[in-house]
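Action item from last meeting closed. Structure (282 res):
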């Protein structure tokens, strides 16, 4: 009996030793069914102040406007120098989740649906204008982009009361009002979600960002928790679902595009430094 106990204890210590010495400090990532590795063309590790980066918008070929979800500040990050070159304070602390640029004006989305208009944000001389979204029910907003063709902003909903679909709302820039009905509804029963092999519900897609490809007009809907990227055509019809590996996308919160269509995704730090990735998709 003593010999058996001794062998069990010895075996346990040996196994623990193997695990300890083979562990490289990074816990193994779980992956959703259908997860794929993506080609990362370039990576920028961000300063600590952007660990909570939650939204990005391309200004030109090498500068990106960034927000983080704690402070009312727009950061201009330079991809050439890998440095923050400017900060613009537009509001108090809050849960900011998206940024869109319309010329020299920035629009910033707060999770409660409030939209801040920051005119000439790089040389701000006037206070930001706040617009409140009058929607009934509980909505958690995450993600904002400029729809130039229709002169509007598109807004993602991460979570809501119902889980039949995920709506995309539009904020009309001519009237500065939210359209009361969604312009698109993402149906969880669409065949594009079949690769996930999981029960189809409101948790199957919890968007954190939205963007429009400058060349195709396709709509890109990003998720962070179980990282994935849903591509819709300009009419809101699902085209393809990319499921990402967590080892590459720790918490994908932002997406933007260069004028030539290059894709950039930002990740919150999640225990380390936040980053911006330039990626290639098949």
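Sequence:
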């Amino acid at each position: 009996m003593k010999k058996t106990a001794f062998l069990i204890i010895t075996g346990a210590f040996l196994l623990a030793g193997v695990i300890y010495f083979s562990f490289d400090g990074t816990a193994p990532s779980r992956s959703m069914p259908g997860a794929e590795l993506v080609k990362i063309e370039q990576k920028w590790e961000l300063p600590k102040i952007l660990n909570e980066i939650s939204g990005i918008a391309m200004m030109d070929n090498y500068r990106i406007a960034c927000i983080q979800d704690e402070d009312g500040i727009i950061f201009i990050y330079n991809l050439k120098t890998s440095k923050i070159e400017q900060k613009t304070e537009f509001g108090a602390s809050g849960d900011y989740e998206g940024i869109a640029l319309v010329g020299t004006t920035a629009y910033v989305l707060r999770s409660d649906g409030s939209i801040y208009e920051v005119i000439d944000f790089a040389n701000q001389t006037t206070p930001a204008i706040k617009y409140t979204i009058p929607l009934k029910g509980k909505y958690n907003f995450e993600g904002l982009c400029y729809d130039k063709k229709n002169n509007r902003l598109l807004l993602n909903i991460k979570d809501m009361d119902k889980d039949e679909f995920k709506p995309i709302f539009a904020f009309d820039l001519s009237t500065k009002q939210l359209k009361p009905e969604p312009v698109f509804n993402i149906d969880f029963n669409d065949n594009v979600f079949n690769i996930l092999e999981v029960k189809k519900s409101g948790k199957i897609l919890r968007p954190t960002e939205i963007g429009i490809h400058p060349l195709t007009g396709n709509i890109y809907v990003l998720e962070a928790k179980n990282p994935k990227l849903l591509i819709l055509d300009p009419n809101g019809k699902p085209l393809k679902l990319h499921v990402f590996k967590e080892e590459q996308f720790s918490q994908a919160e932002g997406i933007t595009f260069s004028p030539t269509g290059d894709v950039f995704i930002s990740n919150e730090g999640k225990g380390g430094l936040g980053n911006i990735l330039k990626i290639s998709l098949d």
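Note appended to the action item: DSSP finds one helix and 22 strands in the chain.
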